[in-house]
Specification:
Elements: E1 6-7, H1 8-14, H2 21-29, E2 33-35, E3 38-39, E4 46-47, E5 52-56, E6 61-66, H3 76-79, E7 83-85, H4 114-125
Antiparallel strand pairs: 1-4, 2-3, 2-5, 5-6, 6-7
Amino acid sequence: MAEGRQRIDKWLFFARVAKSRSLGARLAVGGRIRINRDKATQAADLVKPGDVLTITLERRIIIYKVLAPGTRRGPADEARLLYEDLTPPPERKADAAPSAVAAPRDAGSGRPTKKQRRDTDRLREGE
């Protein structure tokens, strides 16, 4: 193996991106990892310091710059030394329009009665 290079499945395991090496291999084979914009096709693809990995997980996309090959799966603090996180911060949800606006009520009036709830529903249906 070339000096300073490591298999992508091992690196994902050591960097604590995947819980096991086989799950790291599954990410690579499944086309969920890009190494410098090229899709990783097998678990044996090699990464080296300076490579940029784009990893697609279930609900998010992670961008890591490889700083070093791993030697073991250690604690999270040790794993963070293997990469630099280039992931942009998530968009704030406050900018999005609220999905539902609560009906105005006087403070301390408690929960609405069934009749009040029906009246509110009728008003909303008319919108």
